[in-house]
Design brief:
It is a single chain. By secondary structure, the chain is of the alpha+beta class. Helices cover about 20% and strands about 30% of the residues. The chain has 14 helices and 50 strands. α10 packs parallel to α11 (about 565-575).
C-alpha cells in the first residue's frame, strides 16, 4: 500500500546472491534404503544413515514424500497450509525387486531405487517417467551452505533435485514478477515488503511453493510445504537438474499427476482449500486512495462517481481513517461519525472496506488513566490508554523475543507490537476485535503490511529471535514469517464469520502462504504506474490462478508514480475482467479516478465499467466454477489449450474461463497487435467477425478497443447495465450465442443470493442449456435447474451471433414457464 520510510537492501541482496551460488551436489545425500515398513497408506523407508522417508498415498494422483535426515520422521505432523487430511484410502499396491520398490495406484507409480535412494514417478498406464530425482534427497550436514543461512536458528538446509527435461516448462510459484514460463529462472520465497517492484525483482510479497511441470503435453505438480525461506531453481545454470530447497524444516513435498493441468490445480485446491465465494458486490467496481479523508472527501468521491454515470460498488478507507494509526479505531476529527458516513454511502449502493494493518501501537497506559468503559471503544479517545494494546498485553497475545522481551518493531503507529497469530486464543481475540467495524457498517477488511513489514529492517533480520507459539513448538521467525499473513487472514475471516454468520466475509491481503485462498482475496501490492508494470499484470494474474488463488487483481493505473490517460485506459482494459477490480493510488501521486484526464478517456473507461456489470452473470458463473473446482477464472491460454505448444510462453493474452480470449495492449501508442487464436472457431467480440483458429491474426486496437474474442460454441450470459450490484433485478438475462463449426453452443448459468453462505448447503441455482441449429431453425434446450434457490421470474433473451438468421426458434424448457425472446 505504501512506501516505507527505510528500506535496507544490502543484507537481502547479499543473501540472494549467495543463494544463487548454492551447489546442491555438495550437500550430504540421504543413505540407501535398508528396509521398509508397510503402513495403511504407504511405506516408511529406513536408510543406512538413520534417515527415514515416508511415502504416503493420499489419492490415485497424489503422493506425499516426507524425509527426515539422520533421524526418524517426527510424530508431529502439522501444516498451516493443508485443509484436507481425511483422504479416503485409495487402492494401491506394492511390489519389490532386488533394486527397487514400486508403489502403484490406478494413475501413478512411484519407483524407489534402493541404492542410491532415487524416486521415479511414472504414468501407471504407459510406465513413462513423469518426473525423476536427479540425485538423492540431500541436506547440509557439514554446514557447507552456512554463508547463505539467514537465521542460525532455522536448522539445516534441505533440498531435492529433479531431472530437467529438454522441453520442460514450469509454471506457478504464486506471486512472482516474472514471465509465465519459469524455465531457466531462480526464485526465492520470503515474504517481503517491496514497493515499486519491477520485472525480475524477487522475492516480493507472497510465498506459494507450488509449481507445475509440463513436458510433451503431460503435466505434474509439486507442492513443497515448507514455510522457511525456500528456493526454486528451474535449470538456471544447469542442463541436468532443477531443484528446490529450504533453510530449515522438513523435506516435505506432495507430488500431483495430471496429465491435465486443470486436474492438478483442482487437486491442489482439495489439498490446500477451495476459495469460498465472495459477496457478489465484491465483483463490482472498487475505488481507493492512500488516503481519502476527511469523510467529506469520501462523500465527494462517491458523488462524483454517480454524477459522472460511473458504476461503483466499493469505497476504501486507508490508514488515515484511524486515530493515530491505531487499528480498530476511528479518527475523531476526520471521521467523527463512521456509521453515519457508511450508512449514507450504503443508501447509494456503495459498500465500505477499511484497511487493518498488523501493527498494534505500543502504548503502555499512562499512570492513572481511566479505563475505557464503552460499548464502542473504537470511538473513544486513545491518548491515555489504547484499548487494543491493553487487551493484547493482558492476554499475552503479542510476539516476544527469545529473551521474553516484547518484540517492538516500527510501522505506521511508530513503536508497535505484532500479534502471535499462531496462537488460537490470539486469533480469536483479533477476529472478535472486528466488531469495531461490523457494528459501524463496514463491509470488508483489507489486510496490508502483513509480510510483516518493519521500518527498522525490511529483510527480517530484526525479527530473527522473535518467538511464536506455533502449536507449542515456540519456533522462531525463520519458520513463521511466511505464514504470518496467512494466519492473520484466517483470524480476520473467522472473526467476520462469527460476527456476521449470515454474510460472506470479504478479506483482501497483500501477503500470504499456500492456502491463503481459504480466507482471503489478494492484489499484487504496490505496483508502478508504468507500461512495464502494466504488462506484468497478465503473467502475474495467470500465475496466481495456477497457484491456487483465483480471486486476484492489481491497482488499476498503478500505485506509485503518475499515469497518463492512455495508460489508465489500457489498465482498465485488463482490470475490468480481473476478479478484483480496484483503482488505487499513493498519497503523493497524481489523482487517477476515471475522470481525471478528461472526457475522452473517461468515456472509454465508462464503457468498460458498464461492460463489467453486463458481464457479471458470466463472471460470477466462472467464479463459482473456480470455487468448486479450483480452476481459476483468469487463465493463461495454455490452461485451456494444453496440447498447443504455441500457448506455452504466451503471457500477453489471457482467457476468462473457457470462452473469452483477451489480447490487451501493454505498450504505448499502439493501435493494433498480433493475436494468437488457438484451434477452433472464434468471433471478434466487437464486430462478430468469424475466424478460424490455429493462426496468428492482426487485430485492430484503437484506444477505445481491447481485442476480445469469443470461442465458437460458447454462450455468454449478460445482465442489464447497473450502477451497482443489486440496483435492480437482472432482467432480462441475455444469452449471446456463438455457434461452433457444428452450429451448436452451450453454457451454464450459476446464481445464488450473492450475500449469504447458504450456497454451501445447496441454496443455489444452476441452469444448463444447449443451443443447436436444425435446418433453418435453432433449438434451445433449457435443462432442469439444479439447486433450491429461486432466482425469481425474468425473461431470457437469446441473441444468435450467426451470419444465418434463423427463421424460427424452438424452446424446450423441461416444463417450467419462462419468457424467452430470440433475436
Amino acid at each position: 500500500m505504501k512506501k516505507c520510510f527505510v528500506v535496507l537492501f544490502s543484507l537481502c541482496c547479499f543473501s540472494l546472491n549467495q543463494a544463487q551460488e548454492i551447489d546442491v551436489t555438495r550437500l550430504e545425500k540421504i543413505g540407501p534404503v535398508t528396509g521398509f515398513i508397510k503402513t495403511e497408506r504407504g511405506i516408511t523407508l529406513n536408510c543406512g544413515d538413520n534417515s527415514q522417508v515416508q511415502v504416503t498415498v493420499l489419492a490415485p494422483d497424489l503422493i506425499r514424500i516426507r524425509a527426515s535426515f539422520a533421524k526418524p520422521v517426527p510424530s508431529k505432523d502439522h501444516s498451516w497450509a493443508i485443509a484436507k487430511d481425511d483422504w479416503q484410502i485409495p487402492l494401491w499396491t506394492i511390489s519389490e525387486t532386488k533394486n527397487a520398490i514400486t508403489i502403484a495406484t490406478s494413475e501413478i507409480e512411484a519407483v524407489i531405487e534402493r541404492s542410491p535412494l532415487l524416486i521415479d514417478f511414472r504414468d501407471a498406464h504407459t510406465h513413462q517417467t513423469i518426473n525423476a530425482d536427479e540425485q538423492p534427497m540431500a541436506y547440509d550436514a557439514k554446514a557447507v551452505l552456512a554463508p547463505i543461512m539467514f537465521d542460525p536458528s532455522a536448522g539445516q538446509f534441505v533440498a531435492a533435485a529433479k531431472k530437467l527435461g529438454f522441453d520442460e516448462h514450469f509454471y506457478g510459484l504464486g506471486e512472482k514478477a516474472a514471465p509465465l514460463d519459469k524455465r531457466r529462472g531462480f526464485f526465492v520465497n520470503w515474504n517481503s515488503d517491496t514497493p515499486g517492484y519491477t520485472v525480475g525483482r524477487d522475492p516480493i510479497y507472497q510465498t506459494i511453493p507450488f509449481y507445475l511441470g509440463l513436458q510433451k503435453g503431460a503435466a505434474y505438480g509439486i507442492f513443497f510445504d515448507n514455510s522457511y525461506r525456500s528456493y526454486f531453481d528451474f535449470g538456471r545454470l544447469s542442463q541436468e537438474r532443477t531443484w528446490f530447497g529450504a533453510e530449515g524444516g522438513e523435506l516435505n513435498y506432495y507430488f500431483f499427476y495430471g496429465p491435465s493441468i486443470k486436474k492438478i490445480v483442482s487437486r491442489y485446491a482439495d489439498l490446500t482449500g477451495h476459495m469460498p465465494l465472495v459477496p457478489l458486490w465484491a465483483l463490482g467496481v472498487q475505488q481507493c486512495r492512500y488516503s481519502y479523508y476527511p469523510e467529506s472527501v469520501v462523500d465527494e468521491v462517491v458523488r462524483q462517481y454517480r454524477e459522472h454515470d460511473l458504476p461503483l460498488d466499493v469505497i476504501y478507507l486507508d490508514i488515515h481513517y484511524m486515530n493515530g494509526y491505531r487499528v480498530f479505531t476511528f479518527d475523531p476529527k476526520r471521521f467523527p461519525d463512521p456509521k453515519g458516513l457508511i450508512d449514507r454511502l450504503s443508501k447509494q449502493g456503495v459498500k465500505t472496506v477499511v484497511i487493518v494493518d498488523p501493527g498494534v501501537k505500543y502504548q503502555p497506559s499512562m499512570a492513572g488513566a481511566p479505563a475505557i468503559n464503552s460499548s464502542k471503544p473504537e470511538l473513544q479517545p486513545q491518548d491515555q490508554r489504547y484499548y487494543v494494546f491493553d487487551q493484547g498485553l493482558a492476554g499475552k497475545y503479542f510476539q516476544h523475543r527469545t529473551t521474553d522481551q516484547l518484540f517492538i518493531p516500527r510501522v505506521w503507529p511508530g513503536d508497535s507490537t505484532f500479534v502471535d497469530f499462531t496462537s488460537p486464543q490470539a486469533r480469536r481475540w483479533w477476529g472478535d476485535l472486528h466488531r469495531a467495524y461490523t457494528d459501524n457498517g463496514v463491509a470488508g477488511i483489507w489486510n496490508d503490511m502483513n509480510e510483516p513489514a518493519d521500518f527498522i529492517d525490511q529483510t527480517g533480520k530484526n525479527q530473527m529471535d522473535v518467538v511464536s507459539y506455533d502449536e507449542g513448538e515456540n519456533s522462531t521467525h525463520a519458520k513463521n514469517r511466511n505464514v504470518f499473513a496467512l494466519l492473520m487472514a484466517r483470524a480476520t475471516y473467522e472473526g467476520l464469520a462469527r460476527l456476521q454468520p449470515d454474510r460472506r466475509p470479504f478479506v483482501i491481503t497483500r501477503a500470504g502462504y499456500a492456502g491463503i485462498q481459504r480466507y482471503s482475496t489478494m492484489w499484487t501490492g504496490d505496483t508502478n504506474s508504468t507500461w512495464d508494470s502494466l504488462a506484468l499484470n497478465v503473467p502475474m494474474f495467470t500465475t496466481l490462478g495456477l497457484s491456487g488463488e483465483p480471486f486476484v487483481g492489481s491497482d488499476v493505473g498503478g500505485f506509485i508514480g503518475r499515469a497518463t490517460g492512455e495508460l489508465l485506459v489500457r489498465s482498465y482494459q485488463i482490470g475490468f475482467l480481473a476478479p478484483f477490480f480496484r483503482n488505487h493510488h499513493a498519497i503523493d501521486g497524481y489523482d487517477q479516478e476515471p475522470w481525471r484526464f478528461g472526457k475522452y478517456y473517461e468515456d472509454i473507461i465508462r464503457r468498460y465499467l458498464k461492460l463489467r456489470y453486463q458481464l457479471l452473470p458470466f463472471l460470477y458463473t466462472t467464479l463459482e466454477e473456480a470455487h468448486r473446482t479450483g480452476v481459476p477464472l483468469f487463465r493463461p491460454l495454455m490452461l485451456n489449450y494444453q496440447d498447443d505448444p504455441n500457448t506455452y510462453n504466451l503471457d500477453d493474452e489471457f482467457m476468462i474461463g473457457e470462452d473469452l480470449l483477451v489480447a490487451p495492449i501493454v505498450k504505448p501508442d499502439l493501435t493494433s497487435r498480433l493475436v494468437y487464436l488457438p484451434k477452433g472457431i472464434w468471433y471478434d467480440y466487437w464486430t462478430n467477425k468469424r475466424f478460424t483458429g490455429g493462426a496468428m491474426i492482426r487485430a485492430a486496437a484503437p484506444l477505445d478497443t481491447v481485442p476480445m474474442f469469443v470461442r465458437g460454441g460458447a454462450i455468454i450470459p449478460m445482465a442489464p447495465e447497473m450502477k451497482y450490484v443489486g440496483e435492480k433485478t437482472a432482467d432480462p438475462i441475455t444469452f449471446a450465442v456463438y455457434p461452433d463449426e457444428k452450429d451448436s453452443a452451450s453454457t451454464t448459468l450459476y446464481e445464488d443470493d450473492g450475500i449469504s453462505p447458504a450456497y454451501l448447503n445447496g441454496t443455489f441455482s444452476r441452469t444448463s442449456m444447449v443451443v443447436r441449429r436444425a435446418a433453418n431453425s435453432y433449438l434451445v434446450n433449457l435443462k432442469a435447474r439444479e439447486g433450491n434457490y429461486n432466482p425469481g421470474s425474468r425473461s431470457f433473451v437469446f441473441v444468435i451471433k450467426s451470419a444465418i438468421r434463423p427463421r424460427s426458434i424452438t424452446i424446450a424448457d423441461d416444463g417450467r414457464p419462462r419468457t424467452v425472446v430470440v433475436k
